[in-house]
Task: inverse folding
C-alpha cells in the first residue's frame, strides 16, 4: 500500500470520501504502533530498502494512517513506511489518526484504495482486499459497489475463489507471487495437506514447469500416491525422482520430460509399455518421413491409419514399393497382432 | 437400509399401493406436487446421493415401463429389454452409475402397477423370445420389503411360454419367491464379486457366501439362475480371488441350471470418477489403467481386460464347459481373444442368449 506514497507520489487517502473528516494528524511514538496487527495490510511486499533513502533525505512526505486500538494504534496505510522509519531508528512519526470507533468499512476502503489505486494488485493482495471488504461491508450490495470502485473483481464465480487465496499456506502464496503457479493450481494445492502442497510448490519451482504441465504432474503424483498408499512427499523424495531432479548435467527441459515419462510409466505401466513397444516396431518398419502409421486411439479400436505424403506419381509409386516392403515386414505382423 | 422419510406424489395419494407402502414403512411422510420438491429436499444435504437413498418417493410412471438396453454401436449389446418400475437403490456401491444418472438421484417407485401390467401384456403378446430384466435402474429385489411386484411379475411370466424375466440382485431378499408358481420363466440372478470388492466397494450389499446360498435356495425352488461378474475389478491378486469365487459358485449351484454368466470389466462415465473420489475417498478403483473408449466411458486398457477375461473364462470352463458365458459391452476383438469366437459366428449375442433361455427356461416360442 505504500510503494508510491513513499516515493513522493500523492497518497490516495483522499480517495475515500469521508475518511479525512474523521482523521486528525498527530505525532505518535513508534512504540505505540502495533506492527503485528495485519488487519488492514494489503501489500505483500516486506522489504523496505527502496524507501530508506527517500525517507531519510526528504522525511515522510505522506503520513501513514493509523487507527486507535486498545493498546495504542494499528496501521491502516503505511506498513512499509513505518517499518522503514523503525529501521532508520526514528522514535516517532507524524500520522493521520482515526478514532477507535471509526466506520470500519470506510477504513477498509481507505486501506485498499491506498494500494489498489496506485498499482495493479497481485492475486494475494486482491484476495486480502476482498476479504477485508467483505468482512467490514454492511451488506452485499455495498460490498459489490465498493469492490467495483476499487477495481476489484465482483464476479460471483471469481470472488469466492479469489478470497480463498490469502488463506492458503504461505508457500502456496509465495508460489503465486513468484509466478510459478496460478490461481486454479493454488486452489487445487490448497485442498491438499499444507506439507504436501509445500513440497509440490518446491517441486514445481525446481523444475520451472509451466502451468499446464503442473496440472498433469499433480494428477499423476496424486493418483500414484493414492493407489500406492504413499504420500506425495514420499514419492517426490524417492530415489528415481531425486536422481532426475539432482542431475544437473541435463538440460531442464530434458529433466522435465524425464520426470513426466517416469511418472507416466509408473501410473500407466501397461499402456506405457504398449506405446513403447509400438514405437519400437514402427521404428523397425523404417517408414521414413512420407509415411505415417497411426494406431487406434488408446489401442482400443482395431483400425489403423496409414497416411502418405507425396508430390507426384513417381513419389507415389516409390511409396507403393515401400508399402510392399512394409507389408512383408515381421514388425507389422507384431503391431497388428497386438 | 434406512428409509427415513416417504414422499408421496399428491396425485397418487389414494392409490392402494401407495397406502400399503406407507403403512408398511411407518416413517414420516409428506405429500408433494412433483419430483422437483423431492429433489430439492435431498439436494441441500451434505451428501445428496446418500440422502437420496434414505428417502422414498412414490409416484406414477407417465412414460413407458419398457425400454431397450442402452447399448452403443461400438460394443456388442445383449439386446435385453428393461422393465423400469423404480429407480436407485439403498445399497451403496462405489462404482454405481445411478449416482450420476439423475440430479440428484432419489429412491423412486412407480405405484401404477395396473399400467405396468397392461404394458407387459402388450409386450408379451408377441411370440418371439424375449429377455426382460428389472435390474438396470435399480436392484431387482430391494423392493420386496414393501411391495409384491415380484410375485405379480413372476406369476404373469409363468403364464406364458416365450419370455423370461431376469431378477438381478446383490441382496438375499428371496423369501417371497418361495412357493411361487414360476414355471421356470423367471431367472434369479446375482452380481458376483470377490469378497474384497464386496467389502470395500459394494457397501450394504449381501456378502458373497450369502448371495451364493440364496442362489442355491432359488435353485432348490426350481428357478433357473444367472450370474453377472460385473464389474470385474482389477487389483493385485484379483485373478486368484475371482477363481475362488467361481469355485465357490459351482460348489453351491449346478451348471445346468445356469442360463448365462456375464463378464463385464469395470467401466464408467468420467463423472462417476469425481463422485467416487468425493464420496469414497478410500476407494482405489479409479486409479487403475483406464482409457476413454469410443463411447466416452472409461475402461481398462484392452489387453488388461482380455487377460482377465481369459483367466476367468478358463476357470469357469473348468467347472462348467457348456455354460453360456458372454461379455457385456465388448467388441469383436475382445470376444475373439477371450472367448475364441465372435458374436456373429454364433448368430449374434441376442440369439445366443435366446437359445440358452429357451433351453434352461423351457421356452416354447412360436
Ligand atoms: S446394488 Fe446396483 S443399483 Fe444398488 S448401489 Fe450397487 S450398483 Fe447401484
Result:
Amino acid at each position: 500500500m505504500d510503494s508510491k506514497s513513499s516515493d513522493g507520489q500523492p497518497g490516495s487517502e483522499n480517495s475515500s470520501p469521508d475518511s479525512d473528516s474523521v482523521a486528525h494528524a498527530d505525532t505518535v511514538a513508534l512504540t505505540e504502533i502495533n506492527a503485528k496487527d495485519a488487519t488492514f495490510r494489503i501489500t505483500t511486499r516486506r522489504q523496505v530498502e527502496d524507501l530508506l533513502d527517500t525517507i531519510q533525505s526528504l522525511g515522510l512526505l505522506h503520513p501513514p494512517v493509523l487507527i486507535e486500538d486498545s493498546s495504542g494504534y494499528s496501521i491502516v496505510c503505511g506498513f512499509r513506511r513505518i517499518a522503514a522509519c523503525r529501521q532508520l531508528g526514528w522514535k516517532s512519526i507524524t500520522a493521520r489518526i482515526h478514532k477507535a470507533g471509526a466506520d470500519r468499512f470506510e477504513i477498509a476502503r481507505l486501506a485498499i484504495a491506498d494500494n489498489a489505486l496506485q498499482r495493479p494488485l497481485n492475486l494475494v493482495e486482491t484476495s486480502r482486499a476482498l476479504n477485508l471488504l467483505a468482512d467490514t461491508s454492511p451488506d452485499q450490495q455495498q460490498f459489490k459497489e465498493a469492490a467495483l470502485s476499487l477495481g476489484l473483481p465482483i464476479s460471483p464465480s471469481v470472488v469466492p475463489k479469489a478470497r480463498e487465496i490469502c488463506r492458503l499456506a504461505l508457500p502456496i502464496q509465495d508460489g503465486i507471487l513468484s509466478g510459478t503457479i496460478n490461481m486454479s493450481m493454488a486452489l487445487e494445492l490448497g485442498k491438499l495437506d499444507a506439507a504436501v502442497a509445500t513440497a509440490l510448490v518446491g517441486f514445481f519451482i525446481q523444475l520451472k514447469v509451466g502451468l499446464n504441465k503442473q496440472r498433469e504432474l499433480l494428477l499423476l503424483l496424486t493418483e500414484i500416491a493414492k493407489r500406492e498408499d504413499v504420500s506425495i512427499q514420499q514419492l517426490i523424495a524417492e530415489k528415481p525422482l531425486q536422481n532426475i531432479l539432482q542431475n544437473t548435467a541435463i538440460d531442464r527441459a530434458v529433466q522435465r520430460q524425464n520426470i513426466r515419462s517416469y511418472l507416466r510409466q509408473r501410473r500407466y505401466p501397461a499402456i506405457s509399455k504398449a506405446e513403447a513397444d509400438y514405437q519400437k516396431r514402427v521404428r523397425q518398419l523404417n517408414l521414413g518421413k512420407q509415411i505415417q502409421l497411426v494406431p487406434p486411439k488408446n489401442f482400443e479400436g482395431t483400425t489403423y491409419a496409414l497416411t502418405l505424403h507425396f508430390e507426384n506419381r513417381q513419389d507415389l509409386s516409390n511409396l507403393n514399393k515401400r508399402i510392399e516392403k512394409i507389408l512383408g515386414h515381421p514388425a507389422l505382423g507384431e503391431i497388428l497382432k497386438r | 437400509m434406512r428409509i427415513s422419510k416417504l414422499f408421496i406424489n399428491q396425485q397418487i395419494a389414494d392409490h392402494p399401493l401407495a397406502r400399503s407402502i406407507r403403512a408398511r414403512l411407518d416413517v414420516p411422510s409428506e405429500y408433494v406436487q412433483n419430483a422437483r420438491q423431492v429433489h430439492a429436499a435431498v439436494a441441500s444435504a451434505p451428501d445428496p446421493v446418500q440422502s437420496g437413498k434414505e428417502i422414498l418417493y412414490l409416484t406414477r410412471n407417465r412414460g413407458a415401463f419398457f425400454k431397450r438396453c442402452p447399448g452403443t454401436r461400438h460394443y456388442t449389446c445383449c439386446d435385453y429389454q428393461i422393465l423400469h418400475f423404480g429407480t436407485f437403490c439403498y445399497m451403496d456401491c462405489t462404482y454405481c452409475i445411478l449416482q450420476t444418472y439423475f440430479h440428484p438421484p432419489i429412491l423412486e417407485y412407480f405405484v401404477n402397477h395396473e399400467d405396468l401390467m397392461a404394458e407387459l401384456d402388450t409386450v408379451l403378446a408377441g411370440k418371439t423370445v424375449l429377455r426382460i430384466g428389472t435390474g438396470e435402474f435399480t436392484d431387482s429385489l430391494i423392493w420386496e420389503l414393501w411391495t409384491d411386484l415380484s410375485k405379480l411379475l413372476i406369476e404373469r411370466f409363468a403364464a406364458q411360454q416365450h419370455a423370461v424375466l431376469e431378477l438381478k440382485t446383490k441382496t438375499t431378499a428371496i423369501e417371497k419367491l418361495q412357493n411361487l408358481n414360476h414355471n421356470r420363466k423367471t431367472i434369479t440372478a446375482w452380481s458376483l464379486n470377490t469378497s474384497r470388492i464386496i467389502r470395500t466397494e459394494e457397501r450394504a450389499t449381501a456378502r458373497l457366501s450369502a448371495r451364493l446360498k440364496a442362489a442355491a435356495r432359488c435353485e432348490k425352488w426350481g428357478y433357473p439362475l444367472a450370474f453377472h461378474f460385473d464389474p470385474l475389478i482389477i487389483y493385485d491378486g484379483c485373478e486368484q480371488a475371482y477363481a475362488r469365487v467361481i469355485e465357490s459358485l459351482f460348489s453351491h449351484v449346478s451348471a445346468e441350471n445356469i442360463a448365462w454368466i456375464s463378464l463385464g470389466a469395470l467401466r464408467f462415465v468420467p463423472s462417476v470418477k469425481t463422485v467416487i473420489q468425493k464420496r469414497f475417498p478410500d476407494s482405489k478403483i479409479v486409479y487403475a489403467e483406464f482409457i476413454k473408449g469410443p463411447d466416452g466411458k472409461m475402461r481398462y486398457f484392452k489387453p488388461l481386460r482380455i487377460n482377465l477375461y481369459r483367466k476367468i473364462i478358463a476357470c469357469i470352463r473348468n467347472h462348467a464347459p457348456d455354460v453360456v458365458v458372454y461379455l457385456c459391452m465388448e467388441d469383436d476383438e475382445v470376444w475373439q481373444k477371450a472367448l475364441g469366437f465372435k458374436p456373429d459366428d454364433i448368430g449374434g449375442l441376442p440369439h445366443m442368449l435366446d437359445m440358452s433361455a429357451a433351453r434352461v427356461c423351457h421356452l416354447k416360442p412360436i
About this structure: Confidence is low (pLDDT under 50) at residues 1-20 of chain A. Chain A is about 55% helix and 10% strand. The pocket of iron/sulfur cluster is lined by residues B 89, 91-93, 96, 98, 138-139, 170, 205 (CB under 6 Å). Strands of chain A lie at 24-29, 33-34, 65-69, 72-77, 92-98, 291-294, 305-308.
